[in-house]
Amino acid sequence: MIPVMTPEEKSLLERTYKLVEENNGLLHKIRRAGRFATITRIAYWVIIISLSLGAYYLIQPYIEAVSGLYGDIGNVGNTSTNSINSIQNTTNLFRDLLN
């Protein structure tokens, strides 16, 4: 003999099914939002790192010129003419940067 569902049990089963479907939809939305957040976070850091490396690449000649200037000033054996030329070259580099 096959047990028959009462109308109350059938109603309860239908409500449970609707709740399960709604929860499943919400879980899919949460997973989708999590994936989107992860992709956005990765893209954010890739952009930050790329811009940092690009900025360093652009200002590297100026940094080397300034570090060379400090190296020239630190050397006692250099003549004052070399130091003045280094200062003028560095000034010209910064002037070019601002233009």
What this model shows, in words?
The structure is a single chain. The chain is 88% helix and 0% strand. With 99 residues, the protein is mostly helical. The longest helix is centred in the middle third of the chain and has 68 residues, at 7-74. It starts with 6 loop residues before the first helix and ends with a helix.
pLDDT averaged residue by residue: 85
The number of distinct structural domains comes to 1
Instruction: Characterize the main sheet.
Output: none
Query: How far from one another are the termini?
Result: 94 Å
Tally of alpha and pi helices: 2
Weakly predicted, low-confidence segments = none
> How much strand content do the residues show?
under 5%
Q: How many strand elements? A: 0
In short:
The chain is mostly helical and 99 residues long. Helix content is 88%, strand content 0%.
Topology diagram in text:
Elements (H helix, E strand, L loop, with lengths): L6 H68 L5 H19 L1
Helix pairs in contact: 1-2
